[in-house]
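Re-running the complex after MR caught last week's input typo. The corrected sequence lines follow. Everything else is unchanged.
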Amino acid sequence: MRQLLVVEDGQEYSEFARLFLSDAFDVRTASSAHEAMQMAAATDFDAFLFDLRFDRTPASTLVGDVEEIASRLFGGDLERALRYVQDQQGTLILGELRAAGYYQPAVFIHDFRERRLLNLRKLYGHVSAVASFSAAEIRAALGVT
Amino acid sequence: MTAPSDLARLAARLSHDVGKYVARTAHNVPASRVVPEPLVDMLLKDLFELDRGRRASSVFEEGARPIEERRPDPRLVEVRALLGELDAMEADMRAHVPEALSRAVAIALEVEALLRGLAVDLERSEP
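Corrected-run output:
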């Protein structure tokens, strides 16, 4: 059976995947970049399914250089930079996975603007997004017929 | 990489935290809007145990307040009314009354659409 790694900070995606994707995938879940990297090293996943926003995990588990982002985007405001890192954590974890050589297709359930999605594809290759939790659309994005 | 404005970020967060998750199950209910039994528990979670066990209306209020303080929007008023309607139907939904479940699906999809529209508009209008 194909292997799917769900990366999220809660349980909503994995609950959804168990109900709507378990006929096509063996579903595993990671709640941080560290866990995702460990699991990607241990299992040859066929695809990644990402949440975007991580505000339920400890800040210490987030990836992203808060000080650098604060300096570059927020005039040194660390609090705003941390919120930004939380809001974009899914893409930052994808960046870590890509940097480590894991190039599997990545699907976000998020209503990205087209320009943003194009930027993500330029940076990270095979990235797609589905605006809502539509099982039919997510299955199509994951290549399930 | 550019930083979104605070207002656009708040609206995007509200759309993510409430709109997307409140409609998680609703998107997968057949067009007849009759909710299959295996989906009822997940639908109830979406509406009444959304984030750390909180009801959607509570998560919405927390996220909508800082937006309304700066830019009131009729869509937020509309979403508040729709979520209030859901809260009033909770007992019927938990009793699996088909009409209540069908109405809840319609409301969930409407809430998602309204919050997404707000997020898109604020992203476009902010410098």
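None of the earlier attempt is carried over here. The interface with chain A takes residues 1-3, 6, 9, 12-13, 15-17, 20-21, 23-25, 27-28, 38-39, 42, 45, 51-52, 112, 116, 119-120, 123 of chain B (CB under 8 Å). The radius of gyration of chain B is 15 Å.
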